[in-house]
Design a protein that fits this description.
The protein has helices at about 1-10, 30-50, 80-100, 125-135, 155-165, 180-185, 190-205, 220-235, 250, 265-285, 300-305, 345-355, 370-385, 395-400, 400-410, 430-435, 440-445; strands spanning about 50-55, 60, 70-75, 105-115, 140-150, 170-175, 210-215, 240-245, 285-290, 295, 310-315, 315-320, 325-330, 335, 340-345, 360-365, 385-390, 415, 420-425. It has about 450 residues and is α/β, with parallel strands linked by helices. The chain has two domains: about 20-365, Alpha-Beta Horseshoe (pyruvate-formate lyase- activating enzyme), CATH 3.80.30; about 370-445, Arc Repressor Mutant, subunit A (Orthogonal Bundle), CATH 1.10.10.920. The termini are close together.
Length: about 450
């Protein structure tokens, strides 16, 4: 295993989309073309499967030095109402475009509040905002509404308010319980806080409670990681995300330089943290789902894996697919299936554009026919750990890259049978590397500087 880690621990995308953001063709992107692709996709899919809505709530009261998200650090809560008003104005811009189609009234199947820290906002402000948003849409009977809760500031009122608004899933960012690690990442968070919010969620009837843990953080040891996992399992969350720490300080500036790179586990040490965690999870009844996720058999994520309805997008893994994902808020990335768009990354610029009646989009990508072919392949790999292809639809570059597949096969990471590929159990830690063998844009445009986190 060590030699394989040394060989395959290279910079690579996480593939929440394809093409990945660094390879978007921004020169060929236009707002009009993107909106047209969104209207086309909405008309094709709204009545059949509904749409997803991601809402980025970027404010945090303190900076966690492991975080690679777009956020705004402030203790000034007067920012809440103006920001939420801008979100409603942005949604109305999209609703106007949807009304021009024959797709009908938008049906929200999935909704996620991400951050930043969604629970930075008061329960009352969240309620008023969501009630106004919901008055403009229909809600699917089998909807899945979720939010990210910070255990230190998620109150019973937050949980109760959102449960009354049909939220049925909550994810708590635990990261690690070791006080040395917590100090290094500036995330001091007692177990008692996580225990309280988890118990409240159960009492209120949330159907899926998730805890997020991160391996590869500074000063993490095998013993300390096991302690964090055993404390987590005491609370028996329905779902677990076990993320690899993405160290990208060259992208995020000083936010990820609260510690020295020498304080991070090596590639081999990091893989041991993951393998030991996986062993503990599986011994206690959790099943590995896709990449970096585990769930109990009753959870919707596990069921979606079994039924092959699991999907992956900018929200991560979701238990059902929607072709359209409208994303609202500063830096949010939307997906029409045929194109991507990203909003301005500065809160003020985002709000100014929306308040003037403009879509706050500053860049994007329109997928080519070739992009769509490889998007399906990579999505299959990331969700189902297998894929099949028609040779006639694959460009010449793919067959040149087949040497990469042969190497992965020789190393026992995949099995290729004709035009079908299956990732082996030994290959699961290298899922991102397998997907990279289908990333034609990465092959054609090898970056000259490091732009991705390490794959292992």
């Amino acid at each position: 295993m060590k030699s394989l880690i040394d060989k395959y621990n290279i910079p690579g995308p996480r593939y929440t989309s394809y093409p990945t953001v660094p390879f978007w063709d921004e020169a060929l992107f236009s707002l009009d073309s993107y909106i047209a692709s969104l209207q086309k996709s909405f008309q094709e899919s709204n009545q059949k499967e509904g749409i997803s809505v991601y809402i980025h709530l970027p404010f945090c009261e303190a900076l966690c030095t492991f975080c690679a998200c777009h956020k705004r650090i402030t203790k000034n809560h007067s920012v809440e109402i103006p920001y939420l008003k801008s979100l409603i104005l942005e949604w109305k811009l999209y609703a106007t475009k949807f009304a021009e189609t024959e797709g009908g009234r938008p049906i929200i199947k999935e909704l996620h509040l991400g951050g930043g820290t969604p629970t930075f906002f008061s329960p009352l402000h969240l309620q008023l905002f969501l009630e106004e948003l919901f008055s403009l849409v229909d809600i699917a009977p089998d909807c899945e509404f979720s939010f990210e809760g910070h255990p230190n500031n998620t109150s019973f009122s937050h949980l109760e308010t959102l449960k009354n608004l049909q939220f049925n899933r909550v994810s708590f960012g635990v990261q690690d319980y070791d006080p040395i690690v917590q100090k290094a990442i500036n995330r001091i968070q007692p177990f008692e806080n996580v225990q309280a919010v988890t118990q409240w969620s159960r009492e209120l009837g949330y159907s899926s409670i998730s805890h997020d843990l991160v391996f590869g953080l500074p000063f993490q040891s095998l013993a300390a990681m096991e302690h964090s996992i055993r404390k987590t399992i005491e609370l028996l969350p329905d779902r677990l995300a076990f993320y690899s720490y993405a160290h990208v300080p060259w992208i995020k500036g000083n936010g990820q330089r609260g510690f020295d790179e020498n304080d991070l586990p090596s590639g081999e040490e990091k893989r041991k943290l993951y393998e030991h965690g996986k062993f503990l999870f599986q011994n206690l009844g959790y099943h590995e789902v896709g990449m970096d996720h585990f769930s109990l058999p009753h959870d919707s994520l596990y069921k979606s894996m079994q039924e092959k309805t699991i999907h992956r997008n900018f929200m991560g893994y979701t238990s059902s697919k929607t072709q359209v994902m409208v994303s609202l808020g500063m830096s949010a990335i939307g997906d029409s299936w045929y194109g991507f768009s990203q909003n301005f990354k500065e809160v003020e610029r985002y709000q100014n554009e929306v308040n003037q009646g403009n879509f706050p989009i500053f860049r994007g990508h329109l997928l080519t026919e070739e992009d769509l072919v490889f998007r399906r392949q990579i999505l299959n790999i990331m969700c189902h750990l297998e894929t099949s292809w028609e040779p006639s639809e694959m460009p010449p570059e793919f067959f040149e890259a087949s040497l990469k597949l042969k190497e992965l096969e020789n190393d026992g990471l995949i099995i290729v049978n004709g035009n079908h590929l299956q990732i082996t159990e030994a290959g699961r830690p290298f899922t991102r590397n397998v997907a990279m063998a289908f990333d034609i844009r990465l092959m054609k445009n090898k970056p000259e500087t490091r732009i991705f986190s390490m794959t292992i």
